[in-house]
Amino acid sequence: MSTINVAPEQSEVLLRVIEAAPQVCRRHQFFVWSQGDFQRWLPHHISVCGSYDRDQRNVVFDVFNSVPVPDEASLELKNIRSELIQSALMQWQRARFKAVVMPLLPIVGSGLARSALSTLGYGEMLVHGIHRPGRPEEVESFFMFAQAGHQYTDEVLQAFEMLLPCLHVAYQRVSSTERQMVLGRTLAAPLPGHPYQRAIPITEREREILLWVRDGLSNQQISEKLGISALTVKNHVQKILRKLGAANRAQAVAKAMTMNAFSSMPHAAGDYC
Length: 273
Description:
Elements: H1 8-20, H2 27-35, H3 38-41, E1 46-53, E2 58-65, H4 71-77, H5 83-94, E3 100-103, H6 112-119, E4 124-132, E5 135-146, H7 154-188, H8 204-214, H9 219-226, H10 230-244, H11 249-258
Antiparallel strand pairs: 1-2, 1-5, 3-4, 4-5
Helix pairs in contact: 4-6, 8-10, 8-11, 9-10, 10-11
């Protein structure tokens, strides 16, 4: 493919896309972001986004669509074992892990998603992803875009290559945030008489400080984050250690995690906006 030529006005659009990406933390924010200036580079009506889930030990997919998609097709687009997803992964591998266009012409034995999308006027999907360094069989994220009646050009493929790192980081953040929030809601409401969640003796301020301790910040760094003195932070940390019966900061974090102390926090450094 030839080198992509970016006009000055396109550069401004690209810059806006990249600058907005760090603010994308939730699923709805990702959808809004992908429907704005992002469309100038990767036009689509449907996007299928997958991120590796350490708990499930597999890539988990979600579907974002600005036009209706049959429920049966949507379910298949979320299933990593479906014919369409497996076909997309295979074509991406054959393209040596570069952006590739996958035709959607129904074939004998193909699944509902391919047939339904073809019927609705989708002729092809744009496919790309990221795998772990040196381990091409281990996919970290995977993306598929489609627009009815649209044919993707080499310029769009190159744009996909250019935007993939930004897209990957944004969606990884969204996936992490959504998983943490689901976990928090689940742990916050245990069944009556279920001993799963233990009482957490620390205050909200102490939990907030412990959150920064977990992320490796010093007392001085935490004080700057919260607008309080380093001495006040130190006093809070000492109280946390006493309340949790911990000998040091690392042990306090470990004990707090076993008590799910971070699951109901309104934000977590690196995970929440």
